[in-house]
Design a protein that fits this description.
9 helices; 7-stranded mixed beta sheet; alpha+beta
């Protein structure tokens, strides 16, 4: 993030904090909904700055590795000359791919690829100029081709834009389901004696099983498009996919719940969720489920406005896991952040951190050294922490606190971008998907590495 953006966020956050602090005894006169939107805007500004920096730093040479660890692919580089000099080859492949699929069924409306585009892809070695065929390998080459480099670049942006998932360890899943060792147990140390073998340690091991749940979104494009218009909107499309997919990764991490019944799902406690609801996990449930259902002693219904004593009690429920505050994270909804967190004595906002502080994506404050992240993925709920169908009843806040090393997020595969045609509507159907799993260390019913406060009432 550049210094100008840092200074802007710090300045605006200082204004919000001062306003809240000055109305401690008169919170009813504060428009907390409007201030919550300001906070969301500051988080979005921070994310946008990270994505812009990433775009500026992206590999430009052919053969460089792109994509997050475990999901790398080889970049095809950028065009070095001609009309599209500086444009990503993967992006230009995507444009050619869309044009050809559209022309196959609607040639009178979709213009063919220009000579500039054909020459650029030919020079990059990804298009046979004589047959106009993509040189990718794999089944159904060409017609089913998805630019994996473009997907890898977007995949990286998704992790940059996410606020909760990047705080947790990420694991590529070689199989589905996948058993992940979460620790090797405590070693037994003994006094050594020269020329004498020590007693062998057989540490207990623990594991958790990842089972991935697919997350899918669809974007429709009209056939009546041309090369220049696709290239013009690609940056916007990429940014939109990155932001929305990042938020979706966070939503699943926090809200996953496999309960598909008339009652009991933490995201819809008074109705049967639709079978395609994103949160219906095929494997382990998310962070909220642990403290609301699995081990209910880890969360308390505040039933009042937030105080330092309530937050400290929640941190205390973490036991030994509360010692290393640098490995903790505190996530809250934006309204609770404004209406509750900013009025607490132990909260230090980003304008007080100093320029050398390490700031997590989305972090606007810290509580006794614990990063505080307002997230749109954590919504207000009823006084029991469960959400219900009536939006008006979801009016109480919550704060989730967890040890970052005690959770893992698994991905079966990276972002997949697929394209098909809807002939009746004369539209391209662009489908974006990834497969995500959650896993907590230890037995969930007795785990104390995660705690919360729910039922936080507005003043």
């Amino acid at each position: 993030m550049d210094k100008a953006t840092q200074d802007y966020i710090a300045s605006e956050m200082a204004k919000v904090t001062e306003l809240v602090q000055n109305h401690k005894s008169d919170k009813a006169s504060l428009d907390t909904d409007a201030l919550a939107e300001v906070v969301k805007g500051l988080v979005d500004t921070q994310v946008a700055a990270e994505l812009a920096k990433s775009a500026a730093d992206k590999p430009v040479r052919k053969g460089e590795i792109i994509g997050p660890a475990g999901f790398e692919s080889v970049s095809k580089g950028v065009a070095v000359s001609g009309k599209y000099a500086g444009k990503s080859i993967e992006d230009l492949e995507f444009v050619y791919w869309m044009l050809e699929k559209g022309r196959a069924v609607y040639p009178q409306s979709v213009k063919p690829a220009s000579k500039d585009l054909l020459d650029t892809l030919s020079k990059a070695g990804v298009l046979n100029i004589n047959t106009k065929a993509l040189t990718a390998t794999g089944s159904g080459t060409g017609d089913e081709f998805v630019p994996t480099g473009m997907s890898s670049a977007l995949w990286t942006d998704m992790f940059l834009a996410a606020k909760v998932v990047p705080t947790i360890g990420i694991t590529p899943m070689p199989t589905d389901p996948f058993d992940m060792p979460f620790g090797w147990g405590a070693l037994t140390w003994r006094k050594g004696t020269q020329n004498t073998a020590t007693t062998v340690t057989d540490p207990a091991t623990g594991k958790s099983t990842f089972t991935a749940t697919e997350q899918v979104a669809e974007i429709n494009w009209a056939y009546d498009l041309d090369e220049d218009s696709i290239i013009a909107v690609l940056p916007t499309l990429r940014a939109e996919i990155a932001r929305d997919a990042a938020e979706q990764m966070d939503r699943f991490a926090l809200n996953a719940d496999s309960t598909n019944a008339g009652t009991g799902n933490i995201n819809l406690n008074d109705a049967d969720p639709a079978d395609d609801s994103y949160y219906l996990s095929l494997g382990q449930d998310g962070i909220r489920h642990l403290y609301l259902v699995d081990n209910t002693g880890q969360s308390t219904d505040a039933n009042t406005t937030l105080t330092d004593a309530i937050v400290r009690a929640a941190i205390g429920r973490l036991g030994k896991y509360a010692i290393d505050v640098s490995r903790l994270a505190m996530v809250t909804d934006a309204k609770t952040y404004v209406n509750g967190m900013l009025g607490l004595t132990n909260v230090v906002t980003i304008d007080k951190f100093g320029p050398q502080a390490t700031v997590l994506t989305g972090q606007l404050a810290s509580y006794s050294g614990i990063p505080v992240i307002p997230s749109g993925a954590l919504l207000q709920a009823g006084d029991d922490g469960f959400q219900v169908a009536s939006g008006a009843s979801n009016d109480e806040g919550q704060i989730a606190i967890f040890h970052r090393d005690m959770w893992r997020v698994g991905f079966r595969r990276q972002l997949l971008i697929e394209l098909d045609r809807n002939i009746q509507k004369r539209q391209f159907v662009l489908v974006v998907s990834f497969r995500q799993a959650m896993a907590a260390r230890g037995t969930r019913s007795t785990a104390v590495h995660t705690a919360a406060v729910h039922g936080i009432v507005r003043a």
